[in-house]
Specification:
With 238 residues, the chain is an alpha+beta fold. Helix content is 24%, strand content 18%. 32% of the residues are buried.
Amino acid sequence: MPSRADTAPRAIASILAQVERLWLFLDRFDVTPAYAMDERIHVLRTAEVGDIRANGKLAGLARETTHCTFFSVDDDVEYPADYCDTLESQLANYGGRAAVGVHAAILSSPVTSYVRDMTVMHRRASLDDPIEVDLLGTDSTAFRTSTLHFAVREWEHLNLVDLSFALTARRASVPLVAIPRAKGWVNPLAERQDDSIWLGVRRDDTKQTALAQELVALPRPRLVPPEVASAGISFERT
């Protein structure tokens, strides 16, 4: 987003050396900013993929034609140097048959309010053990494209990215797992900005509540234990 000009350069710099390529969605930009000038950065624009707003963070997935590990990141979070290696290692624990992430939440059942009926494992907080969750924050997820592949342009809703991702994963029987980490392992560069989607959700969570109710009504996928999933499996990172 143009309003993230202060944080985007640091966010991109923290992740760029860890990936083979970075799909950068420029949401309603007139020109390409200087911080996006790198041969590893593949720019997608509103004019190319449509006015898909926050969904654009996952727009590059539809352009991936070979299997890889896909990491979704945000323009206002700074990632540690071992971020991708750590998430890749966690994925390997489940044979790649899950999606893993940092920021996460578990929903109560029944859900009467998305905001009130959600227990959050915040991206800043520590977590001692992996835990299966209902939602992963798409500012910090990883999954194998051989396990989960979709096109965000086909999603029904805009700016409901975490819920849309969770529904897509659950319909594909892909478990979501919050990974263990130390406190402050990822660093939010800014929070609760004036144009933050979360502030709007706190004012009115009607749409989110409806999707959350749809999510908890679906059976939770069976998570394969790490010792079973990793047996005899090897994976070459691309």
